[in-house]
Amino acid sequence: MAANKQVEKTKEKKVKPVYPVSLSGIIWKIVTLGLVDAVVLFMIMVMVAQERITESVVAAIVAGIINWIYLRRGGLPAKYLAPGVLFLIVFQVYVLVFSGYTAFTNYGSAHNGDQNLAIQTIKNAAYRVVDGGEDFVVVPGTDNKDGKPALLLTSNVDNKVYIGKDGQQKVEVPEGKYTLSADCADPYAEDTTTCAHAAKTAVGFTPAKISDLTPYQLRKYYSLRVVIDPANDTLGIKTADLAIASEIQATLSFDEKTKFFTALEDDENGKFVKGDVFKPAENGYYHVDGKIKNAHLDAGWRVEVGLKNFVTIFTDEQLRAPLLKVIVWTFVFAFATVGSTFIVGMAIAFLFNHEKLKGKRFYRSIMILPYAFPAFLSAYVWVGLLNKEHGFVNTVLLGQPADGDNNIGWLTEEGPARWAVLLVNLWLGFPYMFLIVTGALQSIPGELTEAARIDGASPWQSFRLIKLPLLLVSIAPLLISSFAFNFNNFTIIYLLTKGGPNDSGVTDYDVGGTDILITFVYKIAFSGTGQNYGLASAFSILIFLVIGTLSLISFRRTRTLEDIN
What we know:
The protein has 18 helices and 16 strands. The chain is an alpha+beta fold. The chain has three domains: about 80 residues, Methane Monooxygenase Hydroxylase, Chain G, domain 1 (Up-down Bundle), CATH 1.20.58; about 130 residues, no CATH class; about 250 residues, MetI-like (MetI-like fold, Orthogonal Bundle). Strands 1, 2, 3, 4, 5, 8, 9, 10 and 11 form a nine-stranded antiparallel sheet that branches. Strands 12-13-14-15-16 form a five-stranded antiparallel sheet, covered by helices on one side. The chain has a two-stranded antiparallel sheet with strand order 6-7. α11 packs parallel to α16 and α15 packs antiparallel against α18.
């Protein structure tokens, strides 16, 4: 008997659930996976063309895992979790990890790639056009023999046609082996550098359409240097716009073994002289003899700098003073916004919660309109209303003349601009507080306020001692989240004032009177001529720590408030 029960249990364990599979489900699965695989395949082809092998391998592995999850039978939890996990990794984890890594590098406008890219950039720029040299009309394409990028060159001197490839001497195309462009059939054409007698294709050459070329392919053509004289490798032919190519003289030579550059002539600005050797330095630049104190070449590469960016935040003399000002205003802006929107929203919620008020639904609908309207559109409307010369606020509400010299510069003067930002944010934020307070009021038992009234409590005492503490228990976490949001409220600041008006006393950093930390970080990363992504990432980490610390303290206080009540 016991043996039979054991056999039955074994059979029960071996039985696997069978999920019904419909034909439409199979077709939908195949079509969806096919589309996903097609997109991934296209991405892999692009990455392989750009020689990004690691990324292409990772993409192929991820695509394989996704296909395995959805093509196998069973594994239902994985099929639901896979998309969410994938998007979480790509859009959250990767972003956080990359931002954290960037904070410890010199990543910026002059250091946005690796050393190989910097070398290529330097080589592309290290030449000058030869005075009185030969020009050529250019058609980009490929050499049919090896498939390598090539240029079809038509001389403006003798109208001869050549095919030129990188590092190789130009090869003349025999007459009759090329086709002239239609424009050049005009017998009255005079500008030989643009159209006259220019070849558009040739035997052994496949032209390319410029609009179809990827940025990576364009860089290949821009870096291509055709040899003129094998005995003199400093002379060549290059194009800067894929329209005209010119004879050029190299100003730097590059040693492939040592990875050093050597100056072939004196710098016109006097930074270096002929014969100077540029070696890579620890700051991601090519310096003369590798010493940072000496002159360097313009293009750099990304290197790890440790805590340098964090040290810069606290030690840079030109950054310290404006940074302190920005930090103070950020806290003032966040606290003032949360406080004003909460007070106004709560007051309106209590007003429209009165039992004797008629038309509550209509009034409440009107109150949430600013919240329902897109914030960026509201910001642009307010920009017009606050215009100094013709705005509604100045000309109608304040009765100031149009184009008046003494009109209030709501968006152009530091003091009025700050009040304007707070006013607009109040307009956009109070409906949110109105909604959450209205909802919280519905959860407060009416018996409590009724008992207080019977005991002789005044309306103010009932509000202060009963309703407000109960409200704070419910909405305190939302107030904390509102503070965190406004601490990083980039949209309203940037759309209204772009952080301005700018402080003319600051030279290295573009700091404005209404800049908060997030807009200041944005300017460091993307504005001006010295974009510094590493420094901006360091700022982002500090902002995250500040917000996290304040949120932790606030939530602990909220828990204490719950225990009291």
